[in-house]
Specification:
Blueprint (H helix, E strand, L loop, with lengths): L2 E7 L7 H12 L3 E7 L5 H10 L2 E6 L4 H7 L2 E2 L1 H6 L4 E5 L2 E5 L2 H11 L8 E5 L3 H12 L4 E6 L2 H11 L7 E6 L5 E3 L1 E4 L3 H4 L9 E3 L2 E3 L7 H8 L4 E2 L2 H16 L10
Parallel strand pairs: 1-2, 1-3, 4-6, 7-8, 7-11, 8-9, 10-12, 11-13, 13-14
Antiparallel strand pairs: 3-5, 5-6
Helix pairs in contact: 1-10, 5-6, 5-10
Pfam families: SDH_C, Shikimate_DH, Shikimate_dh_N
EC number: 1.1.1.25
Protein name: Shikimate dehydrogenase (NADP(+))
Amino acid sequence: MTKQFAVIGNPIEQSRSPELHHAFAAKTGVDLHYKKILAPLDGFENVAKDFFAHNGVGMNVTVPFKEQAFALCDQLTERAKIAKAVNTLWMQDGKLYGDNTDGQGLVAAIQALDWNLENSRILILGAGGATRGVIYPLVQAGAQQIVIANRTLARAEQLVDDLKDAVPQAELKAIGLDQLTGEFDLVINATSASLTGDTLQLPESLVFHHAYEMAYGKPSSFLDQAKQRQIPSTDGFGMLVGQAIEAFSIWNGVKPELKDFL
């Protein structure tokens, strides 16, 4: 019987999840159908419950429903608890399970590029949900120090306060975007600057060796600046594929190779 999956969000038209999951299925021989569901902003819970009530096997959750999905779950993985957001849902023994595969998707994408995370110093620009979701997997992969820079310093400080106990083996630090300086193995842009078309100006005193833009398919002043400095850089397409592979693997028990889809 064909297994039923979906991605839910609002808006949802831009989602590439169906093409990714159908490509993984073709590669691994899994019989599935994966569709997009546009949920009303106030209707996530009803739509999600209805999907699982009608034999849905698994569901991906995108903006703006990841926090609502988190609240809906009976069981959560460790990384979902830390992220306080869920992007992957499934039913098991009558209970709704939730995971957050975004951070692991980012780690897999970075590792596929052969960028070393062991003992690394990482700077993350932005202190929103995207940043919260990737700290724990980055530290699990070997990051030694993570500095979170945000326009509003208090928000970065709050995030460090929330997460420091979850990653005792690493140093977390908060700074304002106006305090960017020092040397880092990797800078990750988790701000919405490329989505809103805002320019993010990186000072000369900031030295870095790799640049990762979480957004994909949009012009990015962050990536432009990395290229001007001739620093290895990439957009977030690999992270998108990586988080999808992780979800596919949870649901179907088989893991496609990330490098086959980049």
